[in-house]
Amino acid sequence: MSSHPLADFLLPEGFESPRVAAVLREGSAVAEFGRYALRAAGERRTRRATPYADRGATRLGDPVILVPGFLAGDGSLALLARTLRAQGFRTYRSHIHANVGCTLNAAAQLEARLESIAIQRDSRVQIVGHSLGGMLARGIAVRRPDLVSNIVTMGSPMLAPGAHHRSLSASVDMLVRLSRAGVPGLMSEECVAGPCARQSFAECREPMPRGVDFTAIYSRRDGIVDWKACIDPVAAPVEVSASHLGMAFDPRVADVVTAALLRSSSSAVEVDRGKSA
Length: 277
Hints:
By secondary structure, the protein is an alpha/beta fold.
């Protein structure tokens, strides 16, 4: 395998991988986590000052599932999920422990998860996806608009999945090598350069079905993917100032996500103290 295992069609003309030094911008994730910690501390003080009987959260509109990015699992979006629950949304985990497998298999598993939630809640579901998770969300929205009411992507390079930092290329190369050696559940060559990759990429470029809202969050400070590849022409684009990693917990990004979910949500439907399911 070469040092760039992804197929050429995943890096269309007009897009490019971030420079090697761009990853240094990801150091701002420390400050972004600090912002989260400060806000969380303030919210805890407010909550302690609120009588227990008044702490029940009014649950808003359609349920929300959070989908992690490449190499990550549900835990990477736990802080964002906590923020959304505090705002009144019922959140669900994707059940992805590590996003390192075939994207088509991951999409099929996520679709089954959505079906389960839709049946349980008798409603369509909103999807918040970080990086690769947003690309999975877009593909599912194209195939199953009956399950999806809204998607919000964060740093998801849908227009050029190959426009990412060379460190990710090295990770993909390692996964493919391990898959070839017989380790199950990992990306194979078909997933990054064959029919599987073509299908996943094609679904990310299909027109969005009517009735499905779409917000694409991007940052010019992204040190992992080309920010231009994150601006889907059919989405409502929103620029933030955050690192790629920091989008998962920066409260300023959480505010943008909340606003996008609120625009798509119907009125409050129930009162509940529930945790992320």
